[in-house]
Amino acid sequence: MAAIVTNWAGNLAFHASDVYRPASVEELRVLVARSPSVRAIGSGHSFSDVVDTRGALVSLDALPRTVELDGSTVRVGGAVRYAELAPRLHQAGFALRNLASLPHITVAGSVATATHGSGDGNGNLATAVRAMELVTAEGDLVTLTADDPRLSGAVVGLGALGVAVSLTLELVPAFEVRQYVFEDLPLEVLDDHVDEVFGSGYSVSLFTGWRRPVVDQVWVKRVSDEAPDLFGARPADGPRHPIPGASPEPCTEQLGVPGPWHERLPHFRPEFTPSAGQELQSEFLLPRRHTVAALRALHGIRAVLAPVLQISEIRTVAADDLWLSPAYGQDVAGFHFTWIKDVSRVLPVIETVTRALEPYEARPHWGKLFTAVAPYARMADFRELVGAFDPQGKFANDFLRRVM
């Protein structure tokens, strides 16, 4: 097939020599076995070069869109997106515990990069995985299950172990959510009440442009029918978009109207393109105990941030046991940045943010732009796992060589 030229945002031009769309798992196995270098691409929504390759790039879009319910789990194909999975689960009376801001992304790609969503009690999307099937370097089909200790290393695998052709996810009963938006929460409130603010809903996001000493918007998603009281923050008098002044039409319903979990937990509706890609993104996740100090550190460099920033989002994610998850072993707060689309201006600011957050043990999101990687306690174990699955480095790329 003709090469995919860029990722979703257009900030990366892929170097792939060929792009393939196999129509079956057997076809994929043959392709992987005969290729000296190969990487898989999902929705192309990563801003980093995590999927880039100078060899063969493989899209799973032509594979069967497998969605197989089995009690309290579901097996999904490698190309299935949350937008197509979630309504089917809800119709059957089930739900996922957590969803990301965008339902447009693939399950396999999101899991591989520890993409997360938010909520004090919610682990990232990868924590739902109970089994996975991989096409490995020799074209073998390998299944890892929950009783295999390697699964915790393979789930957030950055594409280094093989091509994920299916994932089995844990489910919970379907539930309803109400979404409320509040405006102008004084930043100083968070000094003493940060845990109460993040604990005010099932999922809570703070949005700020770092231009004023306030949180511009607080998005609270609740499973109860009572609106919270957020320390004097003003309830929005109508629907809002996270970016002030942008049309709220692409956003999920607000104003406390109850609705299914998959129509409230994401910020954006699947029938809309939430952005034309005119942006760059980065994100840093750090231990929850450092949240207030990190807020103050970023407020201290707001004059550097604001000129190249569209909006920043702060949210929480629960601890997990996945080796390359930024939430490995500890609850974290994520500081997300949606920048203007100007790499030459944005990269120096990302470096400034990296330095500002370094004292707080910040780790970057694997699928966003970053300039440095903090140590991971299980990185040596992950290298050993990669060596066992792919001794010749068939799935290696420049990204993996840098971070490993």
What is the fold's blueprint, element by element?
Blueprint: E1 18-20, H1 25-34, E2 38-41, E3 56-59, E4 67-70, E5 73-77, H2 82-91, E6 94-95, H3 107-112, E7 129-135, E8 141-145, H4 151-154, E9 163-170, E10 172-173, E11 176-186, H5 189-198, E12 203-208, E13 214-222, E14 234-235, E15 259-260, E16 280-287, H6 291-300, H7 302-305, E17 309-317, E18 332-339, H8 343-357, E19 363-364, H9 379-389, H10 398-403
Parallel strand pairs: 1-3, 2-3
Antiparallel strand pairs: 4-5, 5-9, 6-10, 7-8, 7-9, 11-13, 11-14, 11-15, 12-13, 12-17, 16-18, 16-19, 17-18
Tell me about this structure:
- It comes from Nonomuraea africana.
- It is an enzyme of class 1 (oxidoreductase).
- Residues 12-174 form the FAD-binding PCMH-type domain.
- Its EC number is 1.1.3.41.
- The chain is an alpha+beta fold and 404 residues long.
- 21% of the residues lie in helices and 25% in strands.
- It is built from ten helices and 19 strands.
- Strands 11, 12, 13, 14, 15, 16, 17, 18 and 19 form a nine-stranded antiparallel β-sheet that branches. Strands 4-5-9-7-8 form a five-stranded antiparallel β-sheet. Strands 1-3-2 form a three-stranded parallel β-sheet, with no helix packed on it.
- The protein is globular and about 60 Å long.
Feature tags:
404 residues, alpha+beta, Uridine Diphospho-n-acetylenolpyruvylglucosamine Reductase, domain 3, nine-stranded antiparallel sheet, five-stranded antiparallel sheet, globular, FAD-bd_PCMH
